[in-house]
Structures are given as C-alpha cells and as structure tokens.
From TrEMBL:
This is Cytochrome P450. The keyword Transmembrane applies. It is found in: Membrane. InterPro entries: Cyt_P450, Cyt_P450_CS, Cyt_P450_E_grp-I, Cyt_P450_sf, Cytochrome_P450_Monooxygen. Its main location: membrane. The lineage of its organism: Eukaryota, Viridiplantae, Streptophyta, Embryophyta, Tracheophyta. Its cofactor is heme. GO terms for cellular component: membrane. Keywords: Heme, Iron, Membrane, Metal-binding, Monooxygenase, Oxidoreductase, Transmembrane, Transmembrane helix. One of its GO terms (molecular function) is iron ion binding. It comes from the Eukaryota. Heme binds at C532.
Length: 584
C-alpha cells in the first residue's frame, strides 16, 4: 500500500488554492455513473491541483481534518449570509473531505499499524479492480475443482496472499477492513454491546430485507429475534416437519417425469424451498407466494448487478436509473402482495378459522401487530419487513445448500451410497421422522463438508461506529468490517493440504474436533448473537429432502454440467446443476 509518511501538512496551500479557484470562476463538470454534475468554480482545477501533490507528501491528522471541516462550515455559514461563492467552495471542501481526505487519513492510520491493502483511488476506491478481477475469474474454466475462492472472490484470494490475513480495501470511499484472522472474527461476532453493529444496507438490499431481523438493531432486533427463535426452534420446528415432507413430495411428483433422464436441480430446489417456507412459516402454498418470490428474485438480480455501482450521494433524488425505478416498483408490489396475505390471515383469525394463539411465524407476527401493549406491538411495516426477510432468507440459502450437496454427491457416489445406507437403516421407505432426523450422522458430515466448500453466504459484515480497539489494532470510526467466511473455509493452514477435496470424514467427530476448537474457521451460519436464526430449520429441511431423494433415486452428474460457482447474494451454480436420475 502506498502508505503516506510523515511530512508537513499542506492545508495552507490547499486554502490558497481554493482562494485562487474562487476567483477563477470556471465551470466544472464531474461525470459520475453516466451523469454530469455541472456547477461554477474550478472543481477539476482544484482537484488536479490537489492531486498534483503526491499523496505521500501529506500528513493526514485528525486535527488537520477538523480544520478543513471548520473552514467548509465557515464558508457555508457565510453563504447563508449571502455569500454565494462560499457555498461552492464550502460544499467542495466537504466533498473533498469525504472522497479524498478521509480515505487518505484512514489509509495512513491503518498503514501505520501494519494493515496494508490496494491503494485508494479517488471516488472509485478499488471497485473497478474488483469488478475486473471478478469478470476475468468468471471467464476462466474451473474444471470440477472445489478450489473456488479464486473464482468466487478473486480479489480476496489475491489480496490476502499479497497483504496478509487482514487488509484494507475500498468500496468507493468506504473503507472495508477484510478480516480472516479467527481471533478477530470471534471478537467481532461474539460482541454483545453493539460495538460492531450491522452495516447500513444499500438501497437495493434494503428493498429486499426492509428493516427486518437481518438488518435491524437494538430493542427492535431483540423483540423480533425472540419471536423468530420461538417460531423456528424446538417444538415449533418439530411441528413443521410434516409440511416440509409434503413440500418434498410435491417436488418428487414432478421428478417422476424425469426418471432415467436429466434434471436441473437448482431450479427444482428453488421451487421446493419456496414451497417449504411458504407452508411452514406463512401457512400458504408456493403458488400463493409465487409472485412475491418472483419479485424478490428480480430485486436480487438488480441488487447483484449494482454491487459495484457507485452513486454520488443524493443524486437519486434528482435522477433515477431504470434499475432504481424498477426496484421501487418491485418494492411496492411486494408490499401489496404481502399485505394481502396478512389481511387474509387476520380475517381467518377473526372468523375463528384459525386460533389466535400458537400457529406459524405469520400467526406470531399478526398477534404481535394486534398486541395491546405498545412495547410489544409491531407496525404493519415491521410485519411486512419481517415477512420479506423470511421469504428471502428462508429460501435462497437452503436452495444453494441443497444444490451444492447434490452436486457433490453426484460426483462422490461412494458418499452417496453411504448416505443412502444410513437413510434406509433409519427410515426404510417411510417418511423421515423427528427422532431419525437427529440420528443422521453421515448426512450431517456431508452437509457440513458441503457448507465448508460452498457456503451459501460467503461473507458477513459489521461496521465500526466509534473508534475501537480490535485485538491490537485501533480501527477508526466508519470502517466496515468485512469477514469473508469462505476464505478460512478454504485455508490449507487450517484444513490441511487436502483443503479443496470433498472429505466429509473431517466432521466425523463433530465441528469442534474438525476445527480443533477454533470455531471461527467454520462459519456457514455465522456466530454470536446474530448467528442464523434459521440454522435448525435449514438443516432439518436439507436432511428431509436428501433422505427422501436417496430413498428413491441414485444420481450422477450430467455431462451438460458446467462448474461455475458465482455470487448473486448467495453462492450459486451459475448454470444450474444437471444430474441424471436413476430410479431405485
Ligand atoms: C443453508 C442455509 C442458511 C445459511 C447458510 C444461512 C446463513 C446465515 C448467516 C451466515 C447469518 C449471519 C449473518 C450475519 O451475522 O450478519 C444468517 C442470519 C440469518 N438467517 Fe440464515 N442461513 C440459512 C438459512 C436460513 C433460513 C432457512 C432462515 C429462515 C427461516 C434464515 C434466516 C436468517 C435470519 C433472519 C438471519 C438474521 C439473524 C439476526 O440477525 O438475528 N436463514 N444466516
């Protein structure tokens, strides 16, 4: 990293420059995301002058930054008194403070603690490099290798090797500290005093999750988490098993038309997981929630293609891209459709068709909405946000887990045979039962190894609101902490030289033994207070589905399959997973 070294501060020259440029009174234009911002004053001139100074000649201290901000505030105050030029220069200094000064200061601060990384580039950070590296990685054939880190996260693969286990990268002017060191991961994720809250999600992601459980904080989160814990664990989860079995039966009915032929299972599991979450959490079928899922999927696509798009702050209020317009329409459509489902349920409660106590997740939410106690009551918007969160989180992730596990078993037919033996021993040809499900040891090992090699969620993030001490490091406010859990999953120092081989026997004595009690190296469901609330739901659904498939079919990988794991919010097979089905 180009770490700035200690040299005299240049604020006076900067102020001189801004004075010169005020008098120059030229027009400037800044093309951003295809939009030109036009204004008075010599913006480019000032920018150029600033960057003529080599970055290493700066001494970016907090005190200097404060002076810069004070100057801009002073100029803006003058504006209110009628000084128009002051507005331009004041606003300009604020922009420079955000897009240039702060990144350079943070880069310096982290560099002085030994945290290196690719250099910050004005406005874009490293987004262009990351985008290009991903594009290049996607064009490279992978064979059937499980060495997928360099494919799914090529920048992290390359920069961890170059800069170390923890390094600094830039999403535009947003600093992201990438952390793969287990001790630090544990410290962040186990924290319970809100030192590391969730990051504020970008507009598109917000449209998917709203302010639901995945994104909310504080009291609201605690209230909703309690509700979800109750709905997706213990007896409630046990009561969901018959609905899960019915969902798998619906899928296997379709499979009868594919016997002896090829079938694409990623799409099959998309329908299955949509059906399962609809039935278990919302008491409806996939068909009822179909358009919600379709709209959610479109939103996910838009979100994914805008991951590396940078927008000038506030520009969306003036000009909206077609993606922004479409995502707003989708958000409204999802809201209205969910409202319909809620209304129907309220009617059923009123007419006594369903009881007002117990029941599924939707029932608990509706009850909380109707609660007379204001501290327990949730608003309609909260209700909708929670439904959106669970429709999405409950479906996409398990969809990926099932597809990757079937892919692995289609290649490793010896493990497929082992798993089948276990299933037939426990259930024969009967439907899976709660007691047997807890005894599926080989299946658990296979699922864990699948989650290690192909974790559906490949990264977890948090932010730092106030300067904080993390391990031996001092992390400045506003730094985003980015934990790419897929990296330790593929680290040979942790798992051995055979790290990229499918070896479920690693987990034969449980996760603690497999990780040598170093739990943060295996994080498919996260850890600490914000770990996955649907963990038991997902593994139960996966075990039931795989058991019922193994009872009926043997499967091998189709020659049509092209191995290309890629991230579209979750890690998924880009071209689906085609297998050949053989009836037993
Ligand atoms: C294989 C399937 C799944 C995987 C790999 C997975 C992974 C994760 C991970 C890594 C987190 C932690 C995120 C963080 O710390 O920021 C998480 C949180 C969450 N998951 Fe899952 N998940 C899965 C299935 C599910 C299911 C089926 C549901 C719903 C029924 C669900 C609902 C949630 C929710 C609501 C949160 C947020 C919890 C909170 O912040 O309190 N997940 N999941």
């Amino acid at each position: 990293m180009d770490s700035p070294t200690s040299k005299p501060f240049f604020l006076s020259s900067m102020l001189r420059m801004s004075k010169d440029h005020r008098s120059a009174g030229l027009r400037w234009s800044l093309p951003l995301s295809g939009i030109s911002l036009v204004g008075h004053g010599s913006f480019l001139g000032l920018l150029n002058s600033c960057f003529v100074f080599p970055i290493t000649s700066l001494f970016p201290t907090d005190a200097a930054a404060d002076v810069l901000l004070e100057v801009s505030t002073h100029l803006e105050q003058r504006t209110r008194k009628g000084g128009k030029r002051g507005l331009h220069v004041g606003a300009l200094i604020r922009v420079l403070h955000k897009l240039w000064w702060t990144p350079i200061r943070i880069q310096y601060q982290m560099g002085s603690q030994g945290i290196k990384g690719p250099s910050y580039r004005f406005f874009f950070g490293n987004t262009k490099e990351i985008f290009n590296m991903k594009k290049e990685a996607m064009s490279r054939p992978l064979g059937l290798s499980h060495d997928i880190l360099s494919k799914a996260q090529p920048h992290i693969h390359s920069w961890v090797n170059k800069y170390g286990k923890n390094y600094l990268q830039w999403h535009g002017p947003q600093p992201q500290m990438v952390i793969t060191e287990p001790e630090l991961i544990k410290e962040i994720l186990n924290n319970r005093d809100s030192t590391y809250p969730k990051e504020e999600v970008k507009e598109y992601v917000k449209k998917i999750f709203g302010d639901g459980l995945v994104t909310s904080e504080g009291e609201k989160w605690a209230k909703m988490r309690k509700l979800a814990n109750y709905a997706f664990h213990g007896e409630s989860l046990k009561n969901m098993i018959p609905a899960m079995i019915t969902s798998v039966e619906v899928m296997l009915e379709r499979w009868k038309h594919h016997e002896g032929k090829e079938i694409e299972v990623f799409e099959e599991f998309r329908l299955l997981t949509s059906e399962a979450i609809s039935r278990t959490a919302f008491g409806s079928s996939y068909l009822e929630g179909k358009n919600i899922f379709q709209m959610m999927m479109k939103l996910a696509l838009i979100t994914s293609r805008n991951t590396y798009t940078l927008r000038f702050p506030g520009i969306s209020k003036v000009y909206k891209t077609s993606d922004e317009i479409e995502s707003e329409q989708l958000e409204k459509g999802i809201y209205n459709s969910i409202l319909e489902i809620i209304k129907k349920r309220e009617e059923k409660i009123m007419t006594g068709e369903v009881g007002s106590f117990g029941g599924d997740f939707l029932q608990l939410l509706v009850k909380a909405h109707q609660d007379a106690n204001p501290s327990q009551k949730i608003s309609v918007q909260d209700l909708v946000d929670e439904c959106k969160t669970f429709y999405f989180a409950g479906q996409e992730t398990t969809n990926s887990l099932l597809a990757w596990t079937v892919f692995l078993l289609a290649i490793h037919t010896d493990w497929q045979e082992e798993a089948r033996k276990e299933v037939l021993n426990l259930f024969g040809h009967q439907s899976p039962n709660p007691d047997g499900i807890t005894k599926l040891k080989t299946m658990s090992m296979i699922i864990n190894e699948s989650l290690r090699l192909y974790p559906p969620l490949i990264a977890i993030s948090r932010k730092v609101e106030r300067e904080v001490r993390l391990g031996k490091l001092t992390i400045p406010a506003e730094v985003l902490l980015f934990i790419p859990n897929i990296a330790p999953h593929h680290d040979p120092q942790i798992w051995g030289e055979d790290v990229n081989l499918f070896k479920p026997e690693r987990f034969s004595e449980g996760v603690a033994k497999a990780t040598k009690n170093n739990m943060p190296v295996f994080l498919p469901f996260g850890m600490g207070p914000r770990n996955c609330v649907g963990f038991n739901f997902a593994t139960t659904e996966a075990k039931i589905t795989l058991s019922m498939i193994l009872q009926r079919y043997a499967f091998t990988l189709s020659p049509a399959y092209v191995h290309s794991p890629f991230q579209l919010l979750t890690l998924r097979p880009q071209h689906g997973v085609q297998v050949l089905l053989h009836s037993l």
